[in-house]
Amino acid sequence: MHRLNSICTLSHTLIEPRACMNDSEWKANDSSSVALEKFKRDSVYIDRNGKLRNFNHKKVSRKKCGSLRGRGWKYGSGFVDGIFPVLSPTAQEILDFLEKGVESEGIWSSLEKFPATLDLWDDIFTVAVQLRMRKKWDSIIWICRWILLRSSYKPDVICYNLLIDAFGQKLLYKEAESTYLQLLETRCIPTEDTYALLIKAYCLSGLLEKAEAVFAETRNYGLPSSAVVYNAYINGLMKGGNSHKVEEIFQRMKRDACKPTTETYTMLINLYGKAGKSFMALKMFHEMTNQKCKPNICTYTALVNAFAREGLCEKAEEVFEQMQEAGLEPDVYTYNALMEAYSRAGYPYGAAEIFSLMQHMGCEPDRASYNILVDAYGRAGFQDDAEAVFEDMKRVGITPTMKSHMVLLSAYSKMGSVNKCEEILNQMSKSGLKLDTYVLNSMLNLYGRLGQFAKMEEVLTVMEKGSYVADISTYNILINRYGQAGFIERMEEFFQLLPGKGLKPDVVTWTSRIGAYSKKKLYLRCLEIFEEMIDSGCYPDGGTAKVLLAACSNQDQTEQVTTVIRTMHKDMNTELPV
């Protein structure tokens, strides 16, 4: 059993958690041998050049982690970007030990070798914050459970909140619920953070009724409308896949006279951006500024991203310039978003210019930066440039991930370079990357597009006999490729297999099937399948309308399809371009 070395010498048997640390005078030398005096312990950090620096506590981070060393942890608070409190030798040793993946009993036994001191209490929560930043939820649970079950410390609300957060992130809502009840049984008073985390835990598990019940309970406890609780509610809904309810909660927030914060507006801008509604994201940004709510770097980045997803590079650059005029320095996320805008607009050299600008401004590109540039060249058909960037990434010491290989694979796939794509697959296997369904679907689509159906069937066999799960996208590719090639019977065979595989046809499945008959101008058969589609509860999109219209041979048929689609458009209250 690895023994953690004790640094502390005090031996208290019962320690009440303290709220903050006293200032302490101490000295340290940076790389220039300059003595630093009278720094607060939690004000010091080591920058990327290895120099000892200090920072302003009032700055807010874009990373949700904890408050600073010795000050516990609060949901929604955090460190300044890229700045973390210095871990004591004890805290660093605990963190290193936890990262080895030791079982809970081993962790508990090791922690018990330390005398229960105030310094150890601070170290434990500093480590918990570091673990939260790295999303090591199991380790957080082990540490907090040790405090509750085995240590001589008296747990406080921070400990319970960390546990609720960790259980919520792991979708263990019953355990989060149990922790909340335990908090009440110990006569510990829940804070707004407690309710915020519990609401988020329920939302992540899709239990919206329970989330509403907790929200109502905050009123029973006499807590005022809180932006912390509302933000957690909105965040949970977005991450739990219930974005449709976000607008309702946002409007309720304003009706309750709870002023939306920068975080609130940033989340809404992100929501609209991901939904491809950049105009709504911009509207939200204008509402924010009109309400005298100051945008931060995350807000501007979210808005740049919203325009980037639609390839609106000029709009994205306008926002980029506004951010600089507001006195905010772009970070790697902002540069990446702007690169993405040029990539999606089909301007790879524009993306390359932003990449160079980022380096010139002293902002170091990350793996995502290289991936975006590889993708930008790949989208434009410049696969040699894409591979050159890929090799540059490895040369600077960044290990390519599955995503990195996929964007390069996509670049060669667009050009139909089968041999090169197969070479990339071999390279992925040699790198220790496990091929997944998404990768094999890409190869399936490539072979199908080139008419190499024998190889396509080979890939399908590998998926069925291996540990890969063929999903609806797999069968959509098969149905579409065989249908477009005129192999109607084989297409229908795959369609008939779906129920037995536990897969439900989606709009792509039905549209691909209709499209196969549309190419043969079998109008009546297309209408039959369209009716099957509607009866199954699947509704058409613009692609469905397009293939239906393509099946028409005369004006009467065109008018009939147009009437059906427009009628459905009114009933669904959605946009279908006809």
Automatic annotation (TrEMBL):
Key words, A-Z: Repeat
Top-level taxon: Eukaryota
Task: Domain (PROP1-like PPR): give its ranges.
Answer: 351-465
Ranges occupied by PPR repeats? 156-190, 191-225, 226-260, 261-295, 296-330, 331-365, 366-400, 401-435, 436-470, 471-505, 506-540
Give a yes or no for keyword Cytoplasm in this entry.
no
> Which InterPro entries does this UniProt record tie to the protein?
PPR_rpt (IPR002885), PROP1-like_PPR_dom (IPR033443), TPR-like_helical_dom_sf (IPR011990)
Instruction: List the Pfam families hit by this protein, alphabetically.
Output: PPR, PPR_2, PPR_3, PPR_long
Q: Which family does it belong to?
A: Belongs to the PPR family. P subfamily.
Q: What is this protein called?
A: PROP1-like PPR domain-containing protein
